[in-house]
Amino acid sequence: MAALSDRQLREKDLEAFARRRIREAGGLMKKWVSPGTAGVPDDIVFWPGGVVHFLEFKTMEGRVSDAQVRLAWALNALGTPVRVMRTRSQVELYVRVNAVRAKTVSGARRPVPQSHAAG
Fold first, then answer.
1. At 45, which CATH number?
2. What is the Cβ-side half-sphere exposure of residue 93, based on CA atoms within 13 angstroms?
């Protein structure tokens, strides 16, 4: 994947990159599927200490739909952050910031065991 520029990345490639980096940093990322609800973010991320975020993955040219914007506003208003990721550097920054918080909360950064990290 390193040979691809961020402009060439597909959403699923960026999502896989994020899943791996979050797991390595001690978090857990799961696909969010909510039948009948338009605009749900792609994934839910759980960090030590009960921290939960939602991530939406888009290509550099990808558009966030009106339904996604409305639901993101609602989740943010409830105190649950929604982030849109378009590049590996955005993912790296997100992971770096939250890994520091996770390490502070848990006392040590431990990867999630593979048997619990699937998804």
1. 3.40.1350.10
2. 8
- Tell me the C-alpha distance between 80 and 72, whole Å: 9
pLDDT digits (tens, 9 = 90+) for 7-21: 778 999 999 999 999
The answer to the question of residue 3 being in a domain is: no
Tell me the C-alpha distance between 19 and 34, whole Å: 19
Number of domains in the chain: 1
Average pLDDT, the chain: 86
Whether 33 maps to a domain, the answer reads yes
The range of the structural domain enclosing residue 53 comes to 11-105
Q: Write b or e for each residue in 40-63: b if 16 or more Cβ atoms lie within 10 A of its Cβ, otherwise e.
A: bbbbbbbbbeeeebbbbbbbeeee
**CA angle in degrees (0–180, nearest 5) for 109-110-113:** 160
